[in-house]
Structure formats: structure tokens, C-alpha cells
């Protein structure tokens, strides 16, 4: 027997989420059917709003409701430091630490020859432009993840920025190899920033 079209569509939608196979998707779809109509409506609205009302900041690439984002427009932040991260969720992790008061730059990925991702596929040009247009930036801290791709991306950017005469540093290896910034606890992140080394 085939599922009625609406539930088949719902199962299909859940399958598009990472780590969700058809079994889990089916369970979630039937769970949704049992939910209050109000809760389902606000869930659906939250999905649409997250996509429609959030944009990427034209300066740093972070997700934001307003452009430029609240961090970029906050003049009380240290304008001389920029931390370069892979994803917007890394910004959230570093902000939670409350010890860093500089600016950010979100790459939206890393260099990955296997996935065919080159420099033009991530937000590197935006970073170069920022440095050219803003001589307040004195240090770029590379905080890509401690994965082979993250390291390769950091090395690539460091080489690219060297001629610009800006100080380029890399997070200390308090972060274990292969670990992601977003999962690191606040103390580890703080130590990684404190112990950063110049490239
Ligand atoms: Zn921004």
C-alpha cells in the first residue's frame, strides 16, 4: 500500500534533512500528523521565515536579518581584528564565549579538491576586498576547523594575505585534530585564541 500523497510528500521532505533516513522520516511525518495544528503551523512558519527573512551580511557573510549585521555595525567592537570561520554557526560558538570582541568573516565552506571546491567557491574575495577597503584591520585570525580541508584553507588564505602586510594568525592547537569549532567548549576556544600563532 502506498501512503496518501500529502504524507508521502512530508516523508520526502524530511528525508532531505541531513542524517535522516526514510525510517526516521516516516516516524517524523506521522509524529507531525499527531501534533496540534497550531504547533504545525508555527513550525512551518519558522521554516519559511528562517529562509526568507535571513540574509547574508554583505560585509562579513554572517546570517542576519538586517544588512550589515549587528556585529559589523557595532563600532564598540575591536575593528582591528577579524576572525575567519567556515560557517555562521562558528560565529555563534565564538560569540557564546564572550571573550572575543573583534569582527568576523564567514567563508561558507572550505577548499576541497575532492568536492571540487576552489577559492572562487568560498567567500575569499570578500575578505580581500574588506582588507583593501579598510585599513583599520590589523590582524586576521584564521579559525577554520582543524581538519585537512580547514588547514589547507588557512594556509591558502595566509599566503594570499601575506603581501597585504596584515598580521595573519592561526588558532592554537588546543583544538584536537579533526575537531570542529562549533563543538568546542568555551574554555578550549578561549585558549585556542589566546595561544594563536603567527603564520
Ligand atoms: Zn556582518
Automatic annotation (TrEMBL):
GO molecular function: DNA binding; zinc ion binding
C4-type zinc finger segments: 57-72
InterPro entries (UniProt xref): DNA_Rcmb_RecR, Rcmb_RecR, Rcmb_RecR_Znf, TOPRIM_dom, TOPRIM_RecR
Toprim domain residues: 80-176
BP-aspect Gene Ontology terms: DNA recombination; DNA repair
Pfam families assigned to the protein according to its UniProt record, in alphabetical order: RecR_C (PF21175), RecR_HhH (PF21176), RecR_ZnF (PF02132), Toprim_4 (PF13662)
Region forming the signal peptide: none
Alphabetized SUPFAM superfamilies for the sequence: Recombination protein RecR
Keywords: DNA damage, DNA recombination, DNA repair, Metal-binding, Zinc, Zinc-finger
Alphabetical list of PROSITE patterns matching this protein: RECR (PS01300), TOPRIM (PS50880)
Protein family per UniProt: Belongs to the RecR family.
Role: May play a role in DNA repair. It seems to be involved in an RecBC-independent recombinational process of DNA repair. It may act with RecF and RecO.
Protein name from the UniProt record: Recombination protein RecR
Amino acid at each position: 500500500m502506498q501512503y496518501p500523497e500529502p504524507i508521502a510528500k512530508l516523508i520526502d521532505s524530511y528525508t532531505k534533512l541531513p542524517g535522516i533516513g526514510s525510517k526516521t522520516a516516516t516516524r517524523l511525518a506521522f509524529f507531525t500528523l499527531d501534533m496540534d495544528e497550531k504547533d504545525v503551523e508555527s513550525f512551518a512558519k519558522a521554516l519559511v521565515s528562517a529562509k526568507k527573512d535571513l540574509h547574508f551580511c554583505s560585509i562579513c557573510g554572517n546570517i542576519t536579518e538586517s544588512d550589515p549585521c549587528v556585529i559589523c555595525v557595532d563600532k564598540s567592537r575591536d575593528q582591528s581584528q577579524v576572525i575567519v570561520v567556515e560557517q555562521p554557526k562558528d560565529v555563534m560558538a565564538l560569540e557564546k564565549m564572550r571573550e572575543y570582541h573583534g569582527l568576523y568573516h564567514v567563508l561558507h565552506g572550505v577548499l576541497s579538491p575532492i568536492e571540487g571546491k576552489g577559492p572562487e567557491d568560498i567567500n575569499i574575495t570578500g575578505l580581500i576586498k574588506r582588507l583593501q577597503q579598510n585599513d583599520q584591520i590589523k590582524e586576521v585570525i584564521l579559525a577554520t576547523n582543524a581538519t585537512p580541508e580547514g588547514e589547507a584553507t588557512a594556509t591558502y588564505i595566509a599566503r594570499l594575505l601575506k603581501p597585504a602586510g596584515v598580521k595573519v594568525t592561526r588558532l592554537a592547537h588546543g583544538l584536537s585534530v579533526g575537531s570542529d569549532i562549533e563543538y568546542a567548549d568555551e574554555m578550549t576556544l578561549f585558549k585556542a585564541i589566546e595561544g594563536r600563532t603567527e603564520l
